[in-house]
Design goal:
Elements lengths: L2 E4 L16 E6 L1 H5 L4 H18 L3 E6 L2 H5 L6 E4 L4 H8 L4 E4 L8 H9 L7 H12 L3 E2 L2 E2 L33 H15 L17 H22 L16 H5 L5 H13 L5 H24 L18 H4 L9 H13 L4 H15 L3 H11 L5 H12 L16 H7 L20 H13 L7 H12 L3 H11 L5
This protein binds iron/sulfur cluster.
């Protein structure tokens, strides 16, 4: 049996053919020199890599080197590796003699299957369409050729605002994580690397995300049993005092390869079939994994390498320093300050603050999509090149003009006011678009629409907003005000 080279995001048992297969793992320091990662992300990746090496024991050759090539020079004999998750890593492995590249693992729909589906589509590719294909293809939540419960998506049921006057959801927290001697060694090494000049952003803190399969499995089991039911209705809501709400907090575990996504899909489906969770919540979770996650993974490879630099809304502004450095204290807009503080302190916020606070703000300001891809990749514990490219360029920044998404995720303060408890304690007013109390999201929304209306493709769902834009009597003031605000922290 050939020795299997395992990258840091190929850490589950399903990346080996046999539990006893010999392996090699390389900890490349150059990876951390290339980008300024969040400190907790660097910690999680190194901790997960080293925990996996400890589990494998004598079965693995574990190398700490400057580059992957330095490491490979110390390994004798041919190797095999599962298809890596970035174009850069793929080019590396394909260029090496004596390394056989196997199909990808850790995803549900294969690249060829996806390409076969996508090739038959005319024009834009849509997640809803792919998701139906994947449900049928893999037999998930279906009865014959029909969706369980008569609907393919219960998305409309997952848009509940946060409940009443509660400042937290009434759900048990996920099982805690105890750091061990491996985490202590990682922290010690990262401190030393910082002294040597490797730079990180964000604050260090106790590890919040699983670094082992056992930790990830415990979190998944607990989620399915205790948190999946409330996850459904409140998955789009935000509460300042409850950043985790009922989210699974498993994205980093899937993206490190600790968990097999299909096993998680089946666990959720079982919860529905045994009456432990309602269909709407189960379907919402399945849609994230079997739908969105696999859709963006496959699109990363289906689109060409130039997709990452798409900028068809002509967003030419450089991401400002306060954003790059996660300087939440310089921001007075309560929602943005809190979400940026969440990134700074944890390297994680759930998908709605990412899309509707961070992504929305960047979209309105016209910051370069490729810089944002890099920022999300570096600053989030679950960020990897493949996941951020399509999510940021296509979904969040609409920089492909609709190749994979129907309309830009732009909104004013009214949406944030409905879906969060931020606005009550904010110095700005979500209803105002001009003046001292003008909400930067509300004013920014009209500023964005005015700037891009000539470029946006026709879309019935945008038509009402554009008609409203035409009726604004204070548009000139909004534009002057937002021009003056520029890229300063709001
Ligand atoms: Fe955010 Fe505007 Fe609400 Fe303030 S008023 S919290 S800036 S949406």
């Amino acid at each position: 049996m050939l020795r299997r080279w395992l990258f840091a995001d190929q850490l589950g048992q399903h990346f080996l053919d046999d539990p006893t297969q010999p392996a090699v793992m390389i900890e490349s320091k150059a990876v951390f020199r290339r980008r300024v990662y969040h400190r907790q992300k660097a910690h999680l990746v190194l901790s997960a890599l080293r925990h996996r090496a400890a589990e494998l024991g004598d079965q693995v050759v574990y190398l700490r080197t400057e580059t992957y090539r330095d490491g490979l020079r110390q390994v004798s004999g041919p190797l095999e590796v599962c298809h890596p998750t970035s174009r850069r890593a793929r080019a590396l492995v394909h260029g090496l003699p004596d390394v056989a590249v196997l199909p990808p693992r850790g995803f549900i729909t294969g690249l060829d299957d996806f390409a076969g589906w996508a090739d038959q589509r005319r024009g834009a590719l849509r997640m809803d369409d792919f998701y139906r294909f994947a449900r049928l293809r893999h037999g998930v939540l279906v009865v014959g050729d029909e969706p369980e419960g008569g609907r393919w998506s219960f998305d409309a049921d997952s848009r509940e605002p946060p409940p009443g006057d509660a400042d937290r959801l009434d759900v048990p927290p996920p099982p805690g994580i105890s750091e061990d001697e491996i985490d202590a060694e990682v922290r010690h090494d990262l401190d030393r690397w910082e002294r040597e000049g490797i730079r990180f952003v964000g604050r260090d803190g106790p590890r919040l995300f699983p670094a082992t399969r056992a930790e990830a499995t415990a979190r998944l089991t607990h989620f399915v049993r205790h948190r999946l039911t409330p996850f459904g209705p409140y998955e789009d809501a935000m509460l300042a005092a409850d950043p985790f709400m009922a989210h699974s907090m498993l994205s980093s575990s899937f993206n490190l390869g600790l968990l097999d996504p299909m096993a998680a899909v089946r666990a959720a489906e079982r919860a529905y079939r045994t009456g432990a969770a309602p269909l709407a919540s189960v379907e919402g979770f399945v849609r994230q994994l079997l739908g969105w996650r696999d859709f963006v993974w496959n699109l990363y490879w289906y689109f060409d390498a130039g997709y990452r630099d798409s900028d068809r809304l002509l967003a030419m502004r450089t991401v400002p320093r306060w954003w790059e450095e996660l300087d939440a204290d310089s921001v007075r807009a309560r929602c943005l300050s809190d979400v940026l503080a969440g990134v700074r302190d944890r390297g994680w916020v759930h998908h709605v603050p990412r899309l509707m606070v961070l992504g929305n703000y960047a979209l309105q300001r016209g910051w370069r999509p490729a810089e944002l891809v890099d920022w999300f990749h570096r600053s989030f514990v679950d960020g990897f090149e493949w996941v951020m490219t399509v999510n940021v360029v296509g979904m969040s920044q609409f920089a492909d003009l609709g190749a994979m998404s129907t309309k830009p995720y732009a909104s004013g303060g009214a949406y944030l006011n409905r879906m969060s408890d931020y606005c009550g304690g904010c110095r700005y007013d979500p209803r105002r678009r001009v003046g001292e109390k003008a909400c930067p999201f509300t004013a920014g929304y009209w500023y964005f629409l005015d700037r891009t209306r000539g470029t946006l493709p026709p879309n019935a769902r945008m038509a009402r907003s554009l008609a409203q834009l035409d009726r604004l009597t204070d548009l000139a003031q909004v534009k002057a005000q937002e021009k003056q605000r520029g890229d300063r922290a709001p």
